[in-house]
Amino acid sequence: MAHGLDAGNILFQEILPIGERDTVADLYDALNAIQREALPAAVQRLLGGDAGAMQDDRGASYGCTRLPRDGAIDWSASTAQIDRLIRALVAPYPGAFTYFRGARLVVWRAEPLPDAPAYAGRIPGRVVNVARQGHIDVLTGDGVLRVLEVQRSDDRCRPAAEVIRSVRDTLGVCLGPAGANRGAGVPAGPA
Questions:
Q1: Which residues of 4-15 are buried (b: 16+ CB within 10 A; e: fewer)?
Q2: Using CA atoms, how far apart are residues 156 and 100, in angstroms rounded to an integer?
Q3: Which CATH number is 68-184 given?
Q4: What is the pLDDT of residue 149?
Q5: What's the pLDDT at 175?
Q6: pLDDT at 2 (0 to 100)
Q7: Among candidates 164, 182, 165, which has minimal Cα distance to 174?
Q8: CA distance 107 to 89
C-alpha cells in the first residue's frame, strides 16, 4: 500500500484489447476474469518480498467526475461517438439517454447502420425507419444509428419499435414547462 491516488508499485499488468463492439460490461467481465486468475499469484509474490516495478507517472492521467447529464445523447454528434457513448454507459451504469415526447428515454443497445442511405435536409434525432423486427433507425450528425433496445423511466427494457412507432418522431427534444425547446436533449440545470 502507498499513500496517494493510484500510487505504489505494479505487481501485475496486462494489456486488454478492446473489441470494436465491446461494452463497458464486457470490459468489466474480462477484467474480473483476469483479476480472479492473476490476483492470488500477485499477492503471493508481494508476501514473498517482491516489491514490484515502479510506475512511470509521466504516462498517468486522471478522468473527470462524470455527472448524470454527461450521459445525454447529442444526436448531432457522429454516429461513432453516439455508439461509443451508449456502449460506455450500459449496466452497471445508468445508460445513455435522450428524450422522447418530453420524457427521458434510456438507449441500452444500438449499432451504426452500415452503408446508410443519404438523407437530404438531415435533422439529427429524426426517426427514419421503424422496423417490424423491433429496431428503429435514427439520423445522427453524419449517418444513421440503429436503436435496438430502450427503456422509459417507468418501464422495462424493450425493443425500440415497441416504444417509438412513427417516423414522424424526433428524439432529443426536451420541452420545459412553457414548452420551449431546451436544445439537444440536455435538460437545463443539474440532472
A1: eeeeeeebbeee
A2: 16
A3: 3.40.50.12230
A4: 98
A5: 58
A6: 78
A7: 182
A8: 9
Which residue type occupies 120? A
Going from N- to C-terminal start, the domains of the chain cover 7-62, 68-184
Alpha-carbon distance values, 46 to 30, 50, 52, 131, 167 (Å): 24, 5, 8, 56, 60
Q: What amino acid occupies position 79?
A: T
> Secondary structure of the chain: what % helix, strand, coil (to 5)?
25, 25, 50
Whether the full predicted model's pTM is greater than 0.85, yes or no, is no
Give the C-alpha distances (Å, rounded to integers) separating 43 from 2, 16, 36: 15, 21, 12
* Burial bucket for residue 141 (CB in 10 Å: 0-12, 13-18, 19+): middle
Q: Which of 36, 31, 1 is nearest to 14 (CA)?
A: 31
**Mean pLDDT per 10-residue segment, the chain (191 residues):** 81 92 94 95 93 86 85 96 97 94 95 93 95 97 97 94 95 62 41 39
